[in-house]
Amino acid sequence: MGHTHIWWIRRDLRLHDNQALEAALQGADQVVPLFIIEPELMESAAPKRRAFLLNALDRLDHQLKTLGSRLIVRRGPAHTALPAFIDELNDAAVFAQEDFSPFARQRDQAVAKSLDLRLFPGVVRQHPETILKEDGDPYIVYTPYKQEWYGQPLPTPADCLPSPAALPPVPDGLDSQPLPQADPVPGFPSSSEAALGRLIEFTAGALLNYQSQRNRLDLDGTSRLSPYLRFGLISAREAVAHAHIASLQANTDAARSEIQTWLDELVWREFYTAILFHFPHVLERPFRAAYENIPWRNAPDDLAAWQNGQTGYPVVDACMRQLVETGWMHNRGRMIVASFLTKDLLVNWQEGEAWFMHNLIDGDPAANNGGWQWTAGTGTDAAPYFRIFNPATQGLRHDPQGDFIARWVPELAELPAPYRHEPWTLPPAEAAQYGFSLGRDYPERLVDHSYARQRTLDAYKKARG
Ligand SMILES: Cc1cc2nc3c(=O)[nH]c(=O)nc-3n(C[C@H](O)[C@H](O)[C@H](O)COP(=O)(O)OP(=O)(O)OC[C@H]3O[C@@H](n4cnc5c(N)ncnc54)[C@H](O)[C@@H]3O)c2cc1C
């Protein structure tokens, strides 16, 4: 038997632009694509996220088979499953894409104690340790981080690796456990072909209006690539490269500016990955110690109303219903509902963070924590606790015709557009005309926004001393 390499698949469910796979193929007579089902990760994953992953693995196995290989599946934890697997092979080096969450880092450190683990880029374009201030400290503010990030030349698609044309066979006789069956996730076909297709379609179309339309809840103005980036059905480099080439080919400054805004979002993703890497405590408590003592309300009924889309604020309810039904929510929606939970209901952001992880297909500890701490005002931003969204105004601005409300809160679909966002302003005589009764057909508001706003300002002030 010659050299055997294991390609240990984690968040890189793709054959194209896969630096770990490319390295595993060098000098190997046999390459074993291995996925380890980690009980800790699988059991905590949102059902739709789990289904997306399992379908993507199934599709990857299919792709591997067409190239003369196959996927081997084992059960974890990795630090026991991997050494046992290597014993079966006699010896093998392990090639994997580096991941940065505290769970992933601890797992890899434990594994590397007993075997030859080699890690490669792919989750982000810039490793968290490569974007540092002059004194070597990590950036904690987005804008200077971003400036440094753009200091490195951007890739184009020509810099991305193609899929291998063929793969060496997997050694005979290796057992693979069956993948648990999962229904497809509507709206998010789980394959790297679908991911690349979506990236190409987006960069040739909606990207050119991204800056102007990205906040519109009623339009399809964003890429919906987040689940694909989450599980590496495309690499971070591919996403950047396709946007960069679109920018190089754009004819006007206006078009370049639209594209730039999308690239900036990819930088946010990397910024939060770096924040979690350098400050893992954010998963347990606020980034800023000054906000550790906010007097959060213990309000299980309010929390349940928020989770179930029954707060009486249509835009909040529409977004929360979209989350539970589809496993995805628009970024503007995420900001609105997160602001509502933390600032209007004064419920701890960690409750919202957990509910999002329980439902999102793209649920990612770094981006999710970053988004929640940003909205709660406990994160890396300097003075954000005054930022309290008015849910009605947000709805009117980002869903001007109320189409998004009509889609997700059908109880309000018959009302004229402005009333869909503020049904409590509908005069009773007019309400009767529509056969609509607030409190009967749709809940009364859980809380008055002006009152809630002041309550939060007072609570944050108290916490800051
Ligand atoms: C409270 C809250 C929680 C969030 N939780 C998650 C999460 O668990 N997983 C997740 O991927 N994103 C999260 N985000 C960020 C953002 O909302 C989603 O990435 C985005 O809505 C996904 O839709 P899209 O792919 O169409 O994004 P696009 O607008 O097309 O953006 C392209 C990509 O950039 C990245 N991105 C965009 N905005 C952000 C951002 N603010 N922070 C980090 N990355 C970003 C995503 O990978 C996204 O796919 C959260 C935001 C908030 C406010």
Q: Would you identify the CATH architecture of the largest domain?
A: Orthogonal Bundle
Rg from alpha-carbon coordinates: 24 Å
Strand coverage percent: 5-15%
Give the termini distance in whole angstroms: 68 Å
The DSSP helix count reads: 21
User: Which CATH C-level class of the largest domain is it?
Assistant: Mainly Alpha
Architecture overview:
The protein is mainly alpha-helical and about 475 residues long. It has three domains: about 5-120, HUPs (Rossmann fold, 3-Layer(aba) Sandwich); about 125-160 and about 190-280, Serine Threonine Protein Phosphatase 5, Tetratricopeptide repeat, CATH 1.25.40; about 290-465, DNA Cyclobutane Dipyrimidine Photolyase, subunit A, domain 3 (Orthogonal Bundle), CATH 1.10.579. It contains 21 helices and five strands. α7 (about 190-205) runs parallel beside α10. It is globular. The model has no long low-confidence stretch (mean pLDDT about 95). The chain binds flavin-adenine dinucleotide. Flavin-adenine dinucleotide (FAD) binds near residues 223, 230, 272 and 360.
Short description, anyone?
The protein is mainly alpha-helical and 465 residues long.
SSE layout and pairings?
Elements: E1 4-9, H1 19-25, E2 30-37, H2 39-44, H3 47-66, E3 72-75, H4 78-89, E4 93-97, H5 102-112, E5 117-120, H6 142-150, H7 192-204, H8 210-213, H9 226-230, H10 236-249, H11 253-278, H12 300-307, H13 314-326, H14 331-344, H15 349-359, H16 365-376, H17 391-398, H18 403-408, H19 417-421, H20 428-433, H21 449-464
Helix pairs in contact: 4-5, 6-11, 7-10, 10-11, 11-16, 13-14, 14-16, 15-16
The structure holds flavin-adenine dinucleotide.
